[in-house]
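Entry 14. Structure prediction run on the chain below.
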Amino acid sequence: MGTGGDQPVGTTGTVPSEPTQVESSRRGLIPVGQEIDVRLQSSLSSKTATVEQRFETTTVVDLRQGDEVLVPAGSTIRGVVSAVEPAGRVDRSGELRLTFDQLEAGGRDYQIRGMATQAFESRGIREEAGTVGTAGAVGAIVGGILGGLKGAIIGAAVGSGGVIAATEGTDVELPAGTIIRVRLDSPVQLR
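Output returned:
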């Protein structure tokens, strides 16, 4: 999890059920520190993941600036496993460090820099398939989808630097459908 007294995050907080507002006076600018909730499209495990392994997520709710949708629900955010430690035989918990580097919104690709700050368990993609419908409908019905969340991932916590660590001496298991809160560490100017 971190050293020097870092407190884990990810054990509290809520997942938005309505569009997230961007607080920026500059049109189309997503500022440093903006948080975006994304849904993991495939499972990740500290037991099997490899460094530089790519993965995809999709945004859970619209990201808006006033009345304008900057990043629609269902947009793709791509990431990479930047570090992995499988659980050891003697009291060592598994760890995954996830970083995010690409945003695809409105048919354009943007370079981003972001890290995981929280992870929430969900019922999974298959159980929610009937609820979700099409990607365009996600924003309108996301409250019902997120109602199926169990809260922070049981047995894992997110520490400084985006490290997701198992808390029970086991491997980190993030099933497809897990909601990950991503904090942007660089501004993104959308065109």
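The longest strand covers residues 108-121.
Filed with the rest of this week's runs.
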